[in-house]
């Protein structure tokens, strides 16, 4: 499907994102309006006459991912009747009559699912509200989240070896799942694909993701998501303002700035920081070094979500060009396909005359935390680098690996994570179908099948950081005020919570934790005025 037509470019826009070829800024001047978010769609990222069609590496139409194709009829647990392959297309009205005919034969789970389906409307028209979901706003209720009420019992049946119940629930899911529609339908679609993969390991049709898109469409999707959702831009904002604060408080003999980027921003985080550096009273540092530990390009089932760009994407050249236009001496060292486990202080090559700051976002939870404990070992490596500060952002959720529970336990935790993502993107895109939304959701859905999704709650991360010699520090007042101002630009269901005990800043969606950001210094170098 061709990308939805965007508004005409704004000829008066600022030029902050010239680093994206001939593009201009999607973020306003950092100091004039550091937390504003302009309309990304109005800026010219490429020739407007060029036809950008969403192309997948497997040549599958990204708008049509047939759920039937992920089921394996030869597998006893997946042998469905012929009628299951006759589901109407996502653009058709809700299959009320077909569902009604199956109610008596499908049992209680089918009745509950159909009731939930009817309550949320048709697949095509559902979800077009500002909240973009069907559960209560601002509380912990799961009312209306019917997809989970099918997916989690199905995972429990898989764990128990109850093949007849698995077959029955897959049948119902197959009838209700759709790559379009509201968050329930899309969650059912991703969950059905993940369950089918777990049972047969032969799923060959996956949703479109970063690695299967064209570089410019990838850039467009990422920037559009930054415009409409705080999922990533909120921790990026906290990180950037904290870096400025740390730089201003650093000893005068430390003139240069060195940032170790272990994240998923693909360079989008840094233009606003670079511009902010030019507006400091003393001007930018003589040298700004950016060491980027890129994501490992593995395969669909083991990529860290949001970490691997498409082949041919090169944000380094664009960022260097932008820095040059701002008269900033920027050096970028990109470590491609370099496992975090192999990172050493010598590889980073930090010098005594620079301020080293580590920005780690949504990547460290892929390090093993059992045996071997790669997670603690990596934090010890960071400690040996003697950074001025570490800004850590991670998912705030319990682990879903096989060592921390059975398949059904881990699967339900992954489903809960994906629900919050899909529900919030429905609100972000105001219920409209969008190729940009679809590619972001495809990335998030990797969490359902990725064995490396080994999240931990905020308390456990804080315990690990303290255990290797870091001391937590509260974020500065400017950082907190800026984050709060930024969040007001997004859906009212987003919430910021500050933990008085450890100073962490949490991002919450409808009363449920999504992520946390934290600031850490070496225990023996924590400034007295912090």
Structure description:
Residues 1-140 have low confidence and may be disordered. The protein is globular. Strands 1, 2, 3, 4, 5, 6, 7, 8 and 9 form a nine-stranded mixed sheet that branches. Helix 2 runs antiparallel to helix 3 (146-160), helix 3 packs antiparallel against helix 12 and helix 6 crosses helix 13. It is built from 15 helices and nine strands. It starts with 95 loop residues before the first helix and ends in an 8-residue tail after the last strand. It is of the alpha/beta class and 530 residues long. 36% of the residues lie in helices and 11% in strands. It has helices at residues 96-106, 108-119, 146-160, 163-176, 183-200, 215-228, 230-249, 270-278, 315-325, 345-348, 374-384, 407-428, 435-444, 458-467, 477-487; strands at residues 256-262, 288-293, 330-335, 354-361, 389-395, 470-473, 494-498, 505-509, 512-522.
Describe this protein with a few key phrases.
globular, 11% strand, disordered N terminus, 15 helices, alpha/beta, 530 residues, 9-stranded mixed beta sheet
Specify the oligomeric state. single chain
Pattern of helices and strands: HHHHHHHEHEHEHEHEHHHEHEEE
Low-confidence runs (pLDDT<50, min 5 residues)? 1-140
Principal-axes geometry comes out as globular
Determine the N-to-C terminus distance.
52 Å
Number of helices: 15
Sketch the major β-sheet: 9 strands, mixed
Strand proportion, as a percent range, falls in 5-15%
Radius of gyration: 23 Å
Total count of strands: 9
Please bin the fraction of helical residues: 25-40%
SS class:
alpha/beta
Mean pLDDT: 77
